[in-house]
Every structure is written in structure tokens, then in C-alpha cells.
Specification:
The chain has two domains: 121 residues, no CATH class; 169 residues, Glutaredoxin, CATH 3.40.30.10. The strands form two sheets. It has a five-stranded mixed β-sheet. It has a three-stranded antiparallel β-sheet with strand order 1-2-3. It is built from 13 helices and eight strands. By secondary structure, the chain is α+β, with helices and mostly antiparallel strands. It is globular and about 75 Å long.
Length: 345
Amino acid sequence: MKIEFVFATYLSFLSICVPSFASDSDVLPGGNTVLLEVDGTKLTLSDFDRKRPTALFQARNAFYEAEKKAVDQYVDDYLLERQAQKENLTVAQLLERHVNSTIAKDPPEEALRVYYEGVDTKEPYEAVRPQILQHVRDRRIEKAKKDYIQSLRAQATIALRLTPPRADVTAGGAPVRGSVDAPVKIIEYADYECPYCQQIQPILNRVEADFKGKIAFTYKDVPLPMHSHAEKAAEAAHCAGEQGKYWEYHDMLFAAKTLEVPQLKDHARQLKLDGAAFDKCLDSGAEAGAIRPFVTEAQGVGLQGTPSFFINGRYFSGGLSYEQFRNVIEEELGAAAKLKVTASR
């Protein structure tokens, strides 16, 4: 059975909020919302977005994430209520049958005492044992309920019709690996010294390998102030790029994780670069100017840290799992395929 949840196309944060206090005269023909007037001149949301295209992106994205979370909870509640009706039960009875009754026996006393040793309390074991036991039971029920709801979701076809906000972020002058015509474009803002960027690199390697030919990957340097080696490491990669080995050097930096200037020069020699030319480029700071636009751009879209990703303009912050990358990429590939079919008709 197919279940389709249809929601209105996602509107921008302001275009939802402003009409709540706007009169009919504040909406121009074509639905363009008037934000303010200056000496009688009406300035619209389109005027704002044209002059400040990224100023509200983070607010819109935060609203989208909150909206999506609320809708996901609604889906869970809907599926539970529908299943309860099928079995002629209340939701509470349904959960008792399929969740609570499946919980294993309470853990042995030895396990509870081990748990107690990790609790920050001065109370004796006997005093806190009931709370520990209840916490363990609650955690087991929570996990069992999550698994049960997931099983209901697996039996349903759910089409979430919320449209995520997209930032107008392009590769610009940054290096690109893969075909520039690929249907999915991933742009990473990162820092070679950032431990989270280093941790996610094996996942990115797997993503690039599994979706080869379908994605274009762009790396933009955002050396953070607290990382004293990040700036020179970024410059070194661009110096290597001057000799046609940007990506080889990029990969080596994440693999080696050694970023002192002498080590950066050693990396260049391992890649058989012209050592003298590389050293001159690095020591002179010749590529520092190539990095500054990326930092300015990251600030413009309100990035708070590294790594940050834009996948076809959709924003994701922090360390995504391989499954999260795969799901988003497959969504974008599906959307691209539908658009291609529509265009061919």
C-alpha cells in the first residue's frame, strides 16, 4: 500500500512569517511580499534576496530542519495510530503488545552494579538501584519502540514533500574532482588540521568511489584561526596545484596528517614535484590570495565550523555518515532523473 504525505512546497522563512502580520496591500501582484517601506518606496523579499542572497540562508535552513523533524514525528504517530486501528487496539495497547512485551528480563545484579560504578553519585548502591533499573528499562523500551516504528515505516511508501532551501554556492575558482557536468555537486568547506575533517575523509573517499561519474567534488579551504598549520597546508595544496597535482597533494595531507612546513615540503618531493619551485611558492605565500575568497564565502553563508557541505546547494554541517551521504545523493540523482524525463516530453 502506498502512503503519500503531501505538504506545500517549502517557502522561505520570511515568506512564511511576514504574512502573519502583513495586510493584503503588503503583497504585490505575483505574490512578492513587501518587507518594508523607505520614504514610500516598497522594498520586497525579492529585493532583499537579490542584494543579500545568503543573509537568511541559515535561518531558512534551521526552519526547514525544525519543520522536517516535526513532520517526521507526525509520520510516526500516524503509522502507530493506523496500525492500532488495524488491530482494533489503542496505541497504548499496540505498544504493549509489540514493544513492551518484547523487552528482555531485567539485567543481572552484577550488570547493575557495574552500571552503578559509572554513575556520579555519593548515594549507596541500594539507594539508587531502583533509578538505575528504571533507566535501563526505559532505554530498552525506547530502542524497541524505535525499531518497531522503523518496521512500520519499511512497510509504507512515504513521500516527504518538503523542499529544502538551497544556497547558490558554486565551485567558483576551487579545484573540482569529477565531471563538472555531474548531476550531483558536493562542495566541502574544510580545514586540513581540523580533526573532524580528517575523520570524515575516509567516508568521502568511499562516496567518491561508489558514485564515480555521478558526482563532482569541490574542496574549499577554510583554515580556522585556532589551527596554526591549516593556512600553510592550504597554501601548499594550491602550490602543488600549480604543478598539476592539487588532488594528489590534498589526499596526502589528509592521509599523512603532518603539517609542519618542512613536512609540507617533504610531501611535495614524495609526489615528484619541482622542489625548488614548490618551496618558493610556499615560502612566499604566493597562494594565500587563492584561499581568502573561500573564507569570505563561508562567512557569507553563515558557516559555523568545519567540515560543512553543500550537496546541490543543500546544507549539511559536521560529520555525516556514509549512509547519510548516500541517501542525499540518491535523492538528488532521483530528482535529476525525473527532471530529465520531464524535459524530454
